[in-house]
């Protein structure tokens, strides 16, 4: 039972970590190689696409989506989608997809004359599931070795850790004051009942 308890706890925190890793902003230093527009048809992976573009009331069965192709500073390749988040989740309140696509197109460069940018995004890239991280903003940087400090992520994670710690401390105090005494009384009552049963059978044997 103890192993099951720890397995459930580990699974819970694994899901929390996955949720945070998908939702919190990430930064990639890259060189934009191309921008294009493609018609997509969300299917089983529809959870990983924006639910509706700004101004639309529902998610169309198929629609045109902007994409940004890049070459990362680590020499890998990354493709980003460029969709509005609107008022939905994650709460990036992104409404400037067309403007961002124009900025990305203007920052395209070649390996011979690279222009490095920092792409702020959320989400994952998975070729098997055909899902792409969503670009939120783009800004030019001096070079591929620029250091990006994720201040927002640090603040959010520290605040989350403080909330979890506060809840755990209050739960521990509540348990010590209310639950543990009740459990001790129950255990004492069961022990007394066991003693009486053993004493009753002991007298019968005599």
Automatic annotation (TrEMBL):
Q: Which UniProt keywords apply?
A: Membrane, Transmembrane, Transmembrane helix
Q: Which domain of life is it from?
A: Bacteria
Instruction: Kindly name one Pfam family recorded for this protein.
Output: DUF1523
Indicate the transmembrane segments per the record: 148-169
Q: What is this protein called?
A: DUF1523 domain-containing protein
Species this chain originates from: Salipiger mucosus DSM 16094
């Amino acid at each position: 039972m103890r192993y099951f308890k720890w397995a459930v706890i580990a699974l819970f925190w694994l899901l929390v970590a996955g949720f945070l890793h998908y939702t919190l902003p990430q930064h990639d230093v890259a060189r934009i190689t191309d921008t294009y527009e493609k018609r997509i048809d969300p299917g089983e992976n529809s959870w990983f696409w924006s639910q509706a573009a700004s101004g639309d009331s529902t998610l169309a069965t198929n629609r045109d989506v902007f994409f940004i192709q890049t070459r990362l500073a680590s020499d890998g390749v990354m493709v980003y989608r460029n969709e509005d988040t609107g008022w939905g989740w994650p709460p990036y309140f992104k409404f400037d997809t067309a403007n961002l696509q124009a900025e990305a197109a203007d920052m395209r460069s070649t390996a011979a004359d690279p222009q490095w940018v920092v792409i702020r995004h959320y989400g994952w890239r998975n070729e098997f599931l055909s899902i792409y991280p969503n670009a939120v903003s783009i800004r030019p940087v001096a070079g591929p070795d620029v250091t990006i400090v994720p201040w927002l992520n640090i603040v959010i994670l520290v605040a989350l850790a403080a909330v979890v710690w506060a809840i755990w401390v209050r739960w521990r105090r509540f348990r010590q004051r209310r639950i543990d005494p009740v459990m001790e009384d129950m255990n004492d009552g069961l022990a007394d009942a066991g003693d009486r049963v053993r004493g009753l059978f002991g007298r019968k044997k005599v």
